[in-house]
Design brief:
single chain, 324 residues, mainly alpha, 66% helix, binds zinc ion
């Protein structure tokens, strides 16, 4: 029996993708388009699973209650756009094409394409262990990407869109500036190519990691306990990262899935609990504007931060992190 994903992907391909590819003269993408449709369907399933787990959590123990939840709708739009449309496209289609070209080019030049198994031969044939190793490496790369996005004023201007949400919910994970998102995807793909993640595993890894990231944004009083919070990032831990800082307080908790890097590089703070979120330094449109208004506000803030006066390293950090 054919599984529901294959059926849905087949339907999507027949009715939407093939006619479009035919119109554009891109019939060589026929096979890849089916795979994209597959991962778009996985994206839908992932949003439904996230909803089924996070929504009851938010109802059960909400940190905050808002009479008007209009600002949350924009985050829902971000999620749909990212998880169902763009993410499958870039994580599968683009990653797949890049890996084929890169491996082909390297083989032509007499080089062996890089893989983690070549570096650590004990991983050969150990698919589950390799998958876990890929996840840990990607999470480590994500920690540094995120930390650097707080370090540089121009990058913070873009990333502050993620922090501007005062009504943070599990939908807020995808609330990112498009440029910030592109940097994130390129960063992830370069690491993925460098360690030779198999093309089918890459989108699965991204799906899994993004589910955990959504959970960490939930508006819920949920922690995994003293030990659990040190093993996996909980809503309590990540909320502290989104907290409005008191005078003299430093930004903390940059990790995405594992709190280990924060503990290792001394940026972890387990004491802050269920703080108020938002970025008082951002213009109001960044909080409550439409998708386009938020994106434009992010660009305006970036331009402002890039002016020479704002770009000095030390004040930049203060300016960048003062409001986070
Ligand atoms: Zn951040
Ligand atoms: Zn976040």
């Amino acid at each position: 029996m054919t599984d529901p994903f294959t059926l849905a992907a087949g339907w999507l391909q027949e009715t939407l993708l093939l006619p479009a590819l035919y119109q554009l003269g891109l019939m060589q993408w026929e096979e890849i388009s089916f795979n994209w449709a597959m991962f778009a369907c996985y994206g839908v399933a992932q949003v439904l699973v996230t909803l089924a787990i996070c929504m009851p959590l938010e109802r059960w123990r909400p940190v905050e209650n808002w009479p008007d939840q209009k600002a949350v709708w924009v985050d829902i739009f971000y999620t749909m756009l990212s998880r169902i449309g763009v993410l499958p496209l870039v994580t599968f289609v683009l990653f797949y094409s890049l890996q084929v070209s890169l491996n082909g080019w390297m083989t032509d030049h007499g080089w062996v394409p890089p893989t983690l198994e070549r570096l650590f031969p004990f991983l050969l044939g150990q698919h589950v262990l390799s998958f876990i190793c890929y996840a840990i490496i990607l999470d480590f790369a994500e920690y540094w990407r995120h930390r650097l996005s707080h370090r540089f004023a121009w990058w913070w201007a873009l990333h502050s869109l993620h922090h501007a949400q005062r009504q943070m919910t599990f939908w807020s994970d995808d609330r990112n500036h498009l440029l910030d998102e592109i940097i994130g995807v390129v960063w992830f793909m370069v690491i993925g190519l460098a360690i030779g993640i198999p093309p089918l595993q890459f989108p699965l890894l991204v799906l899994m990691l993004r589910f955990l990231e959504s959970l960490s944004h939930a508006n819920a009083r949920v922690s995994f306990g003293w030990l659990g919070d040190r093993l996996l990032i909980s809503p309590r831990f990540h909320r502290s990262h989104h907290g409005v800082l008191a005078a003299g307080q430093q930004s903390a908790n940059y990790g995405a899935i594992l709190p280990w890097w924060d503990m290792l590089f001394r940026t972890a703070d387990f004491d802050r609990a269920y703080v108020r979120t938002g970025d008082p330094g951002a213009e109001e449109l960044m909080h409550t504007g439409t998708y386009v208004q938020q994106q434009m506000a992010g660009l305006r803030r970036m331009r402002k931060m890039m002016k020479p006066r704002a770009a000095k390293p030390v004040p930049a950090r203060a300016a960048a992190e003062g409001a986070d």
